Amino acid sequence: MKILVTGATGQIGSELVPELRKKYGDENVIATGRNIKKLKEFSEPTEVLDVLNKKKLEQVVKEHNIDVIYHLAAILSAKGEQNPQLCFKVNVDGLYNVLETARENNVEKVIIPSSIAAFGPETPDNPSEITIQRPKTMYGISKVLAELLGEYYYNKYGLDVRGVRFPGIISWKTEPGGGTTDYAVEAFYAAIQKGHYTYFVRKDTVLPMMYMPDALKALIQIAEAEPSQLRYRFYNVTGMSFSAEELTKVIQKFIPDFTADYKPDERQKIADSWPTRIDDSAAREDWNWKPDWDLERMARDMIENLSKKLRGDAYGKA
Question: Which residues are catalytic?
Answer without folding.
Answer: 139
